């Protein structure tokens, strides 16, 4: 496990072993780190490997990894593609026709096929993906800017902020910066847990990508199983899935939740 932004470390690992596949998520969950897809694709291909990109947080509206060198794109269609928190599914998109046929054979052989209604719900969501993502992005930017100025907040992780270490790369490969925002509190873990419990419009939940706004404490929820490992996240971290509600209402909700 190596940092996705450390291209030298990636090349070192590729040179040290025989690698079939490089797997990357960008933006990452929940720290919203950014990977340079084009550079990783070049490194993977030079080593004879494929590059697979989990594009769930960005969605195909904001980022198209296949156009910058990726071989496979992965989506949780449960999230932004479905968009309404009412379907569970996933998708693989391959750049090469022969690889796509191999993946389709495996899918058919193992039975991982969506039911007709699940497929219909996902297709319904895709029809409104563009306007929803535009609104998610606008709201998330305002939320991130407010949090960056709040006295209770130690750090904001959002690729749209110039302070984000991956901001320049995100500008180059994304249409906009997404609806996910993570931040850390100065007062520590217990304050983060209390904040998650005090919101009124942001509902406590582990999912993301729906029209409604969600808040979670990754250390005790989605990432509790990796505590004590290299994947452990800070205890004072809060993750937001910013929805499409009126943004002034969302800002007011976060301000009151962060107040003493």
Gist of the model:
With 260 residues, the protein is an alpha/beta fold.
Would you mind describing this structure in some detail?
- With 260 residues, this protein is α/β, with parallel strands linked by helices.
- It folds into 2 domains: 7-126, 3-Layer(aba) Sandwich (Aspartate Aminotransferase, domain 2), CATH 3.40.640.10; 129-258, Aspartate Aminotransferase, domain 1, CATH 3.90.1150.10.
- The chain is built from 9 helices and 9 strands.
- Strands 5-6-9-8-7 form a 5-stranded mixed sheet. The protein has a 4-stranded mixed sheet with strand order 1-2-3-4.
- It is globular.
How are the SSEs ordered, and which strands pair?
Layout (H helix, E strand, L loop, with lengths): L6 H10 L4 E5 L11 H10 L3 E5 L4 H4 L9 E4 L15 E4 L2 H14 L5 H11 L2 H21 L3 E5 L9 H7 L6 E6 L3 H10 L4 E2 L9 E3 L20 E5 L5 H12 L2
Parallel strand pairs: 1-2, 2-3, 7-8
Antiparallel strand pairs: 3-4, 5-6, 6-9, 8-9
- Strand order, main sheet: write it out: 5-6-9-8-7
| Residues in helices, as a percent range | 25-40%
CATH superfamily of the largest domain: Aspartate Aminotransferase, domain 1
In angstroms, what separates the terminal alpha carbons? Answer: 39 Å
Q: What is the correct CATH architecture of the largest domain? A: Alpha-Beta Complex
Radius of gyration: 19 Å
CATH structural class of the largest domain: Alpha Beta
Spans of at least 5 consecutive residues whose pLDDT stays below 50 are none
How many independent structural domains?
A: 2
What is the makeup of the main sheet? 5 strands, mixed
- CATH fold assignment of the largest domain: Aspartate Aminotransferase, domain 1
